[in-house]
Amino acid sequence: MSVINSFFDLFTRRKDSSFIYDLDLFQDIKNRAYLKRMAIDTVINYVGRAVSQSEFRVMNKGLPVKDAMYYKLNVRPNTDESASDFWQHFIYQLIYYNEVLVIQDDDGDLLIADDFSRHEFAVYEDAFDNVTVKEYTFKRSSRCLMLLLKILQ
Fold first, then answer.
1. Is the whole-model pTM more than 0.90?
2. Could you tell me which of 150, 103, 107 has the C-alpha nearest to residue 130?
3. Cα(129)–Cα(143) distance, integer angstroms
4. At what angle do helices 83-97 and 24-52 cross, to 10 degrees?
5. In the prediction, which pLDDT does 60 show?
6. C-alpha angle 129/85/147, rounded to 5°?
7. Distance CA 142, CA 128 (A)
8. Are the C-beta atoms of residues 125 and 110 closer than 8 Å to each other?
9. Where are the alpha helices (DSSP H) in 1-153?
10. How crowded is residue 52: how many other Cβ atoms within 10 Å of its Cβ?
11. DSSP 35-67
């Protein structure tokens, strides 16, 4: 019986603590990932607030003009957002996803696309299909709807 017990003890009894699985290691990785995400979001929000407090000037022949475009960029770009909310959302998309597409709808409102597919051309402007803004997908395809920024290509 002692031979069977010693053989059984070989697999069941742990002699050193290094064999024990450390579940805190997985918890530590999760916490570090969360803290990195929080740090990135904090920096993006800080930069977004700084940009949203700036004033965009529209120039015509060297003179500042306060027209409809000035109003769209500084006061109310669309019916759902103020200019500061719009620019914070713009900077968040630009820094976090490395690109942002701003389109102008039929009413002249500026909208930030949530999803789009881009078709690149060598000589012509790029075309964008399946542009989606808040669960609405535009049916038409367009050459450069308004603006696409990529900061790291």
1. no
2. 103
3. 9
4. 130
5. 86
6. 30
7. 6
8. no
9. 2-12, 24-52, 68-74, 83-97
10. 17
11. HHHHHHHHHHHHHHHHHHTS---EEETTEEE-S
Is the dihedral angle over the CA atoms 122, 127, 129, 132 positive or is it negative? positive
Q: Confirm if 127 and 143 have CB atoms less than 8 A apart.
A: yes
- Alpha-carbon span 79 to 48, nearest angstrom: 20
If DSSP codes are grouped into helix, strand and coil, which group holds residue 100?
Answer: strand
What is the chain's pLDDT, residue by residue, as a tens digit (153 residues)? 566 666 556 556 555 555 555 555 566 777 888 889 999 999 988 998 888 888 888 888 888 888 888 888 888 888 888 888 899 999 998 888 888 888 888 888 888 988 888 888 888 777 888 888 888 888 876 554 444 444 433
